[in-house]
## 1
Amino acid sequence: MKSKIAGIVFIAGSLYYLLAEAISAIFFNDSLINTYLFHTISELGIPNANSPLSILMNSAFILIGLTLIFGNFYKFREFIVKNKAICYIFSMITAIGVIIVGLIHGGNPLTSGYHTLGAVMAILGGNIMLVLISRSMGEFGFYQKATLALGVFGIIVFWIMFFSMASPVMPVYERLSVYTLIVWSFITGVRLLKV
């Protein structure tokens, strides 16, 4: 029963994130395609005239952070057979980072440093977490290989983003490095439902 509950939480959190981002992007002050290509996820969360549904985007950040905390510590931790402490640490770094992003908006010179710190914790920390989890379970089957592939891809894209901050398509790299965590949350939920 605990696996089913955790699975539902993981799936609901990931789907809510994607839906909230899509709706926020639809109402953003640009075309939908331009929003996804040229505007960062953080921009969707800045409460101003450009993003009238910023509260929806920020709720998605906070919810995915809470999803990671609940899902990992409620049931998923039982599948981690080694490196437990470091996996828990990176789970918390990732979750806290995402929640910071939802609570402290970008675009404000007084708080942008905290927002950036939260984003690095969430994106880089989250993808490192995936690599660690993939190598810390009792077997190395399809799920673990998919988790490893997502984590490695996310880390690579994060560094491409980091060195392409001036690129007009930097938001594409940002989304790709974030979506690895969202996809992982979904497939983890599916796996937990089948246990």
## 2
Amino acid sequence: MTDGFLVPDPAATGTVAASVARVAELAARLGLSHGEVFDVHQLSQESGVPADVVSALLDGRPAGEPDLQTRFLQRFDLLRTTRLKPNGRRYTQQEIADGAGMSRQQAGALINGDRRPTMEHCDAIQRFFKVHAGFLTAEDSDALDGALQRTEQRLLHDYAGESDPLERLLQDHGVRGIAWRAAQLPTDKHRDKVTEWLDMLLESVKPTEP
């Protein structure tokens, strides 16, 4: 831990590529274009990651800001420029300070990089701007992966269909995960094997008739 931050694990690799592959497959099933689901600027706003870093990570190139303080300042600035008041204006330092429960001087020092934030500062600012926990501190690849996973969940919801009776059945019986995993199998032969295993399981738990 450094000044209240949890130091991210640098060994986390490959998760973005895996999420990209899943989202791309879902997009293809829904007939969506690459640009619709991999909107760099939208992903940047959702994750806090600079757009050029988002582009690089989506392309599989190593990128990201390793310094926590610099990353915090990038994300804080993005919040102030994209999460605006209802009248379209930025929140003032005083408004941020009041909303985050700190002094105007503290808020100004954090915005200008004159003071290293604690986790308490980060939590308060994230609550004020109504963004998820870790928005200001997560490693760039982890932050983008989180945004991609949220995109995946939205696409899964669209793919299932909110009013689809099958969707309600899957939700009620908790079997959506089984169905989704079976859909990822490469051939019908593999899926038939899953069906055989399920039939065997059903036979094993079927009540014995008197």
## 3
Amino acid sequence: MNRKLLIALIPVLLCNVNCTSQKKGSSGAITSNGVQKKSKVQKIEITEQTRGTNRLITFTSGSTTTSVNGNISVAVLSAADWENIVKQAELIDLDKIASLTAPSEGRYGDRAFASSILITVDGKTYESSTFDSGAPPKELENLYRELFKEIKSKQKFSKKGLR
């Protein structure tokens, strides 16, 4: 009688072990929008341009590099700050970033820097549509605010374009 029970339970146990190992083996996490995330953000850049000023700010794990009209400076970026930036970047649908609509158009008349955000993930770079500095598309607001929080805490720029 015990052998019959054991023989009946073996397939159930084997199926359970197999299903558990498949769950553990899945490599990506599913995000709230159903997209599988397993990629790694390597760097994030902000470009800002107007007549006479070209600014490029590059965030990577461990550093922030700023180039203003060719003058380069480097600042340390803590692991916690980089992690906060990456978390915000991972919430963005990178396939749609180039088609996001800017809420204002001051950059067309030199009332604001023409800005864009470039996110490099697994060797592929995604560039946002151009927007006014300080007024990114709503989908980029949280990342933009996180980036400029870091910039303002470490470097001093003129107030123009840093709203």
